[in-house]
Each structure stands twice: as structure tokens, then as C-alpha cells.
């Protein structure tokens, strides 16, 4: 599996269902995240099991993503019409409801291949990619199909990246928003560990 961290995020143009329920044929990632952080996540298929719990979890935290100037984008190998149908199926009937981020159709599987999350040439693993405002991947995590991801951890990683960019400090193990960072020097490490080692 490729490690994309530190590399430009593969751009793509594809059909998608937008938050206003419209279908567009030319959703372009670089335009959607221009001036923002991007959080691109792949899921295997519409109308399945773990996937709706993840997508709804992202939707339920969308205000926090917006506060963090982050555009969430979901991708699967389904068509835009399948996305539309799933989005317009009520939650209590196995649907998503009107989620507040784009659902991208990767029916050629080229996007999943570019991000190296395609498995058995069929569906995408649960890959999550954090992209900075320069279009560079700064964090990635890929879960196997049965393992739902932690959306709060995705938010924590955005907060950590923004903290680093703002303060120039690095984020030690278990860092949470509001906690101190670490100066990236021998003295900084020693000072941080002297105060925090027992709590790590």
C-alpha cells in the first residue's frame, strides 16, 4: 500500500451528489477544498452495514469540521444515482438522510486506485486522508472492511495539524486540543517529558 503522506493528494473530477441533493458530473476535489483543509474518506458500498454509521457520524460532526475550515468528501465505487437513492432513504429505513457533504461516484474505481485503497479490484477499504491547504496529504489511516473508523480521531488530527501550523510545536502522544505541545528540540522534549511523562 502506498503512503501518500507528504505527497500531493491525487486530484479527481467525478460525478457527485451535493449537500443540496443536486447531482453534478464535474465535482473537482481541488476546487472543493481550495483554501480549506480536506478530509477525504472512502467507504466500500452504499446500502451496506458499517458504512452508514460512519457517514452519519461525519454528518453529525459537520459543524465542527466547518469550524476547522475543513471540507469533508466521501467516495465509494457506487454511481451517483445509487448515492442519490441512499441519501433520499430515511435513516430508519436503512438510508443516510440528507448528509451535509458531497458523495462522490467512483464507478471506474480510478480514485480508489489513485489513493491505493482498492481491494480485490472491487471496493475501497475505509481510507481516510487529511489534506492541508497546500493540497498535501498530512495524515492517512486505512481500516479493513469490518472496522469502522473513529470520526473524533479524524477531528483530533485536524486540530493537531492546525496547532502545529499555528505554533510550530509538535503534538506528543495523545495530544488533545487545549493541551500543550512540544518544542521540536532536545530541550523541548526534556521539558515536556519532565512534566508529562507519567500521564502518557
Task: Report what the structure shows.
This protein has 200 residues and is of the alpha+beta class. It has a domain at 13-149: Glutaredoxin, CATH 3.40.30.10. It contains 7 helices and 9 strands. It has helices at 29-32, 50-60, 62-67, 80-87, 110-114, 151-167, 186-196; strands at 13-17, 23-28, 37-42, 70-76, 103-105, 118-119, 123-124, 126-131, 137-143. The strands form 2 sheets. Strands 2-1-5-4-3-8-9 form a 7-stranded mixed β-sheet. The protein has a two-stranded antiparallel ribbon with strand order 6-7. The radius of gyration is 18 Å and the shape is elongated. The model has no long low-confidence stretch (mean pLDDT 95).
Q: Which features characterize this protein?
A:
200 residues, single chain, 7-stranded mixed β-sheet, 7 helices, 9 strands, Glutaredoxin
Under CATH, the topology of the domain at 13-149 is which? Glutaredoxin
**Rg, Cα atoms, Å:** 18 Å
Give start-end ranges of low-pLDDT stretches. Answer: none
How many strand units? Answer: 9
Taking the sheet with the most strands, its summary is: 7 strands, mixed
- Portion in beta strands: 15-25%
End-to-end CA span: 30 Å
Question: Helical amount among residues, as a percent range?
Answer: 25-40%
Amino acid at each position: 500500500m502506498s503512503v501518500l503522506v507528504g505527497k500531493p493528494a491525487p486530484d479527481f473530477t467525478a460525478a457527485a451528489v451535493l449537500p443540496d441533493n443536486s447531482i453534478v458530473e464535474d465535482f473537482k476535489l481541488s476546487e472543493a477544498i481550495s483554501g480549506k483543509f480536506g478530509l477525504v474518506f472512502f467507504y466500500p458500498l452504499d446500502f451496506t452495514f458499517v458504512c452508514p454509521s460512519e457517514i452519519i457520524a461525519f454528518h453529525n460532526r459537520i459543524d465542527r469540521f466547518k469550524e476547522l475550515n475543513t471540507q469533508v468528501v466521501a467516495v465509494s465505487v457506487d454511481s451517483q444515482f445509487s448515492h442519490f437513492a441512499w441519501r433520499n432513504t430515511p435513516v430508519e429505513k436503512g438510508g443516510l438522510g440528507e448528509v451535509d457533504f458531497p458523495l462522490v461516484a467512483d464507478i471506474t474505481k480510478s480514485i480508489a486506485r489513485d489513493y491505493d485503497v482498492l481491494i480485490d479490484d472491487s471496493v475501497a477499504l475505509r481510507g481516510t486522508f487529511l489534506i492541508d491547504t497546500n493540497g498535501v496529504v498530512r495524515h492517512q489511516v486505512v481500516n479493513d472492511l469490518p472496522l469502522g473508523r473513529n470520526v473524533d480521531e479524524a477531528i483530533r488530527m485536524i486540530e493537531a495539524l492546525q496547532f502545529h501550523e499555528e505554533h510550530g510545536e509538535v503534538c506528543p502522544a495523545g495530544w488533545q486540543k487545549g493541551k500543550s505541545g512540544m518544542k521540536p528540540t532536545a530541550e523541548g522534549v526534556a521539558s515536556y517529558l519532565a512534566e508529562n511523562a507519567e500521564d502518557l
